[in-house]
Amino acid sequence: MDRPNYITPSGYTALKDEYDDLLTGERPRLVEVVSWAAGNGDRSENGDYIYGRKRLREIDRRLGFLARRMKAAKVVDPARQEDRTRVWFGATVRIVDEDERERIVTMVGDDETDAAAGRIGWNAPIARALRGAAVGDVRRVTLPAGEREYEVIAISYPD
């Protein structure tokens, strides 16, 4: 990876929980089903065996992905941010565009994004444009729909 995988403590916990659930929960249960299905004879028409093996490959790929992401993770606690006057990782920012539409976004790790909840990845175009901005700053963002300007109205961090 060419850049750090910043993540909040709760985001890291979510990755670890998913990893542990797959490794110690779903995968062992599926191995049992596949083993049972393999003992039933003809595997070429055995749905439990065929789809069980397919799901095992999916789980193993996901486990590898999660392991790589956790290894590259740099956990950053936004509550410990010293410079709370500027937009940095973990900041919750209230912005307004040229049409006076207001949005509230929180800068989180790329693995914990949720656009519907206003949680945008640290490497998203809006997040990159807002990095280091202070209240009152206007930043231009190039989005798929075109360029937009956003003014920072408020910045907050968790306590």
Automatic annotation (TrEMBL):
GO terms for molecular function: translation elongation factor activity. Gene3D superfamilies: Transcription elongation factor, GreA/GreB, C-terminal domain, Transcription elongation factor, GreA/GreB, N-terminal domain. Residues 85-157 form the Transcription elongation factor GreA/GreB C-terminal domain. It comes from the Bacteria. Residues 5-75 form the Transcription elongation factor GreA/GreB N-terminal domain. Keywords: DNA-binding, Elongation factor, Protein biosynthesis, Transcription, Transcription regulation. Pfam families: GreA_GreB (PF01272), GreA_GreB_N (PF03449). Belongs to the GreA/GreB family. GreB subfamily. Necessary for efficient RNA polymerase transcription elongation past template-encoded arresting sites. The arresting sites in DNA have the property of trapping a certain fraction of elongating RNA polymerases that pass through, resulting in locked ternary complexes. Cleavage of the nascent transcript by cleavage factors such as GreA or GreB allows the resumption of elongation from the new 3'terminus. GreB releases sequences of up to 9 nucleotides in length. PANTHER family: TRANSCRIPTION ELONGATION FACTOR GREA (PTHR30437), TRANSCRIPTION ELONGATION FACTOR GREB (PTHR30437:SF6). HAMAP family: GreA_GreB, GreB. This is Transcription elongation factor GreB. It comes from Sphingomonas japonica. The gene is greB.
